[in-house]
Write a structure and sequence with these properties.
Blueprint lengths: L17 H23 L3 H14 L5 H12 L3 H14 L4 H13 L3 H17 L3 H14 L3 H17 L4 H14 L18 H13 L3 H13 L37 H17 L3 H17 L3 H14 L4 H13 L3 H18 L2 H14 L12
Amino acid sequence: MSGAQRGPGRRAPRPGGATANGSLYERYKDALRRGHVAALRGRNDAAVDAYGEAAAIAPDRALPHASIGGILVKMNRLDEASTAYDRALALAPRDEGALRGLADVHVRMGRRTEAATTLDRLADSLDAAGRLADATDAARRALELAESRARRRQVEGFATRLRASSSGDEAAQRALDLALRQLEPRRIDEQPPTEVAPTDEEAPEREAGAASEAEPGAASANAAEEALEVAPAPEGVPSSETAPEPETSPEPEAVAEPEAEPEPLPEPAGLGIALGAAAEAALYAGDFASAREGLLAAARAHRRAGRLSAAVDACYLAIGLAPSDPDLHLLLAELYLDRGWRSQAVEKLLLLGRLADLDDDGAVRERLCALVTARLADEPRVADLCA
């Protein structure tokens, strides 16, 4: 049949028909999967190549371009990342991942006004989708970046609507509280008292008081963590402040706060080191399965002991053996949150969510959602993972 004989808008049948279309979609999914796995392994160049292949297979899809943008941000190629996000938004103007990514790029490059404008677009899009709490959060961030009357009115309007509709929703209440805090002008009586310069006679006393007040606070917490990560038994600490019993004790006494998974050893840090050594021995022997299990156990033991850097390192070693293991990536996400690395944790969970979708893995998604509910319920970037 010639082109003139076909009806308007009809395309010539392609060889293979539905089978060819199905094969094309499978190739697209495979390219995306390879991109996600490469991104999880930190192989950024391979991830960009795979996502680029997916974009070539399905040129009408925004996801590959947004994914390329995310990898380029990790590589600190911000101008190229901005271009990738612009391509994604040209295909899908309301793509949330691309809008958030582009706003982040603008912030990193010091373009606060452009970042705020992008967040304005995101807030409008989220509001249109019925996600009022997320829209309020995006509008608040835009106001923080670039103050204007229009943005202040928008945040006020969102806050008014959110107050009327939140009714026990924790995420909505948090978004409302942050918005009201941003709208409220700072009062003079809230200024810290240290702004008043002390007299010469008061200065030594204030310095001594500040030193004594700071001792049990954040500085000592950081010092304790550094000591844990450098050596299992810190030196120079007075015996009254040393929690563990000396190693020469004939028998360890009962632990005051039992672990969730009781261990026969009194020294969790030592347990992690021992498990890591056993895992390395298995690795050299070619027993990769045992090495992976040992590294995962070592990471968990290090985490219980507070040696978070050692736990992260053990996970990274294990990922080299099992790059797609959800147990490892979920544990890494928890460790990122323990360290306060919220953005890295969110990025990890988003990638895991995409892999779970591609593999139709309901068990991984259920565990991912449990972590999101427990520790990231107020994070709009992962809200859709468990919707």
